[in-house]
Amino acid sequence: MTDLPIRKVLQKPDVAGRMTRWAVEISEFDIHYEPMGPIKGKIYADFVVELSSATTHREGADFRWVLSVDGLSNQQGSGAGVILEGPDRLLIDQALHFVFKASNNQAEYEALIVGMLLAKEMGARGLLAKSDSLLVTGQVTGEYQAKDPHMATYLEYVQELKESFDVFELVHVPREQNARADLLAKLASSGKGG
């Protein structure tokens, strides 16, 4: 808890240059802005978080690798942000700059495919993938049809990759819950090194 004015830095990923790189570095430590609230309520909240994290670690056999992906295309280029979290606090971050033209949806699919291939290579058997793209998550889960031939090709490949895992689930998350992958995608699509 602090009274310093860091809220804008931590909650606004649209900063440029060195600030983007710092925001990516800081986000690794799960630092987020939290206004000072009543202490009594915070104690209860901390207790619930502690209790739920202890339960998660006890379920060792059911542990799933967690993949967070985001793709981005703009005038400067296109890229993807991929974050893979595994057992024993393993964390792999990748910012990928594409040398080909891609739409936002194609970049989202590319990010998902790269993340799934990385998880497969790391030996993951169960994978929970998170994306902030409604189209991609909807197509993979079968809620939406892939009418565009390019999207259909991407979808077909993702369906093939799903077979590599005992358990695979792709869920849609709001952009705020995918901020780190979003920052990596912005960094990669800007064409600037990090």
Quick structural overview:
The protein has 194 residues and is an alpha/beta fold. It contains seven helices and five strands; from the N terminus they run αααβββαβααβα. The protein has a single domain (7-190), classed as Ribonuclease H-like superfamily/Ribonuclease H (Nucleotidyltransferase, domain 5, 2-Layer Sandwich).
Tell me about this structure:
This protein has 194 residues and is α/β, with parallel strands linked by helices. It has a single domain (7-190), classed as Nucleotidyltransferase, domain 5, CATH 3.30.420.10. 45% of the residues lie in helices and 20% in strands. The chain has seven helices and five strands, in the order H-H-H-E-E-E-H-E-H-H-E-H. It has helices at 7-11, 18-27, 39-58, 104-121, 134-141, 149-162, 179-190; strands spanning 65-74, 77-85, 91-98, 126-131, 167-172. The protein has a five-stranded mixed beta sheet. Strand 2 (77-85) and strand 3 form a beta hairpin. It is globular, with a radius of gyration of 18 Å. The two termini are 29 Å apart. The model is unreliable at 53-61 (pLDDT under 50).
Q: How many distinct helices? A: 7
Largest sheet: 5 strands, mixed
Total number of strands: 5
Helix content: 40-55%
Strand order of the largest sheet: 3-2-1-4-5
CATH architecture: 2-Layer Sandwich
Sketch the topology as an H/E string, one letter per element: HHHEEEHEHHEH
**What is the terminal-to-terminal distance?**
29 Å
Radius of gyration, taken over Cα atoms and rounded to an integer in Å: 18 Å
**Please, how many domains?**
1
Q: List low-confidence stretches.
A: 53-61
